[in-house]
Amino acid sequence: MAFLFQALIFENSPLWESRDKRTDGWPLMSSPLPTIVICLSYVYFVKIWGPNFMKHRPAYNLREVLAVYNAVQIVCNGWLFYELGRYGWLSGNYSFICQPVDYSNNEAALRILRASYWFFMSKFLDLFDTLFFVLRKKNNQITMLHVIHHGLLPMTIWPGVRFTAGGHACFFAFLNTLVHVVMYFYYFLSAMGPGVRKYLGWKKYLTCFQIMQFIVGSVHCFQLIFIDCDFPIAFCWWIGCHEILFFFLFINFYRRTYLPQQEMKSSPQSKKKNVRLKIC
Questions:
Q1: Active site residue 146
Q2: Distance CA 104, CA 126 (A)
Q3: Largest interatomic CA distance in the chain
Q4: What is the mean pLDDT of each run of 10 residues along the chain (280 residues)?
């Protein structure tokens, strides 16, 4: 990964010459270094500076802010899902088996290019998830999964937007925006308070939905190993390996979060306790 980024920042390198020149001059597209700096600063803030800053301060009540933030996320991801579907994966012109990148300037290709770019930019908006955890002193929710997921995604997506915006690899963005619409809708409801929160017992299934995203995405990427397709296989490996990484991280999260609850419910002691509670 370090070699890849090192090669990218030299303008005369063969790899850099193969970039998508339609994104020349776009913010954060001239080099991967600003994205790397932002991601590293994010990790430092949420793991070190932020918790120390809040150590002797009361937690902020951000209920209204969170409601607005989650609503914005729903709208943004819904728009991106529409764009990637309308002009790409649901248009009838995209193949789920092999989809080369259209580097032309026709309307559909440019809409996919812009949607891919704004999908990349939306990953910086996602960093506010953790910022709000810090300000609310929810340090138990700043898990390794959470930090790796948010801190790694912008660096994962940057090469795809700079070199292969659209085409086979943007299926990841298409799936991810759909998952985020559902996820932030859940968070929006949870921010409404205890009256609504009692109807949110489906969080476990939301995690399953996220895991399914990584399974489908990795299969979609790695099928090009066996198919002759005019798409850079390196970027399918790049996205596919990250899909597998996140798959195992989310599986581990699911096991630690939900399986102990199921074991407690099925244990004899738990059943006796439930019987006593019902009798009382």
A1: no
A2: 30
A3: 77
A4: 53 75 94 94 95 94 94 98 96 93 94 97 96 94 89 92 91 95 93 78 88 94 91 88 90 86 56 38
Q: What's the total number of domains in the chain?
A: 1
Place of tokens 């298409």: 174
Q: What's the CA gap between 57 and 112, in Å, rounded?
A: 45
Is the four-CA dihedral 8, 12, 13, 15 of positive or negative sign? positive
How far apart are the C-alpha atoms of 86 and 90, rounded to whole Å? Answer: 6
Beta-carbon contacts of 247 under 8 Å, excluding residues fewer than 6 positions away, are 211, 214, 215, 218
Question: Which one of the listed residues 149, 168, 220, 242 is annotated catalytic?
Answer: 149
User: Residue 31, class by beta-carbon neighbours within 10 Å (0-12 exposed, 13-18 middle, 19+ buried)?
Assistant: middle
Q: Distance (Å, rounded) from C-alpha 280 to C-alpha 149?
A: 45
**Cα 155–chain centre separation:** 12
Q: Output helix, strand, coil percentages for the chain, rounded to the nearest 5.
A: 75, 0, 25
Domain assignment present for residue 228? The answer is yes
User: Is 160 among the domain residues?
Assistant: yes
| pLDDT value of position 218 | 94
Exposed e or buried b per residue across 57-93, where buried means at least 16 C-beta atoms within 10 angstroms of its C-beta: eeeeeeeeebbebbeebbebbbebbebbbebbbeeee
Tokens found for residue 32:
């991967």
Residue 156 belongs to domain spanning: 27-279
Amino acid identity, residue 123?
K
Q: Tell me, yes or no, whether 4 lies in a domain.
A: no
User: What gap in Å lies between CA 77 and CA 270, rounded to an integer?
Assistant: 41
State the pTM of this model. 0.86
| Alpha-carbon gap, residue 243 to 255, rounded angstroms | 18
Residue located via tokens 């509670």: 277
Sequence-distant (6+) residues with CB within 8 A of 204 are 254, 258
Angle between helices 107-125 and 171-190 (to 10 degrees): 40
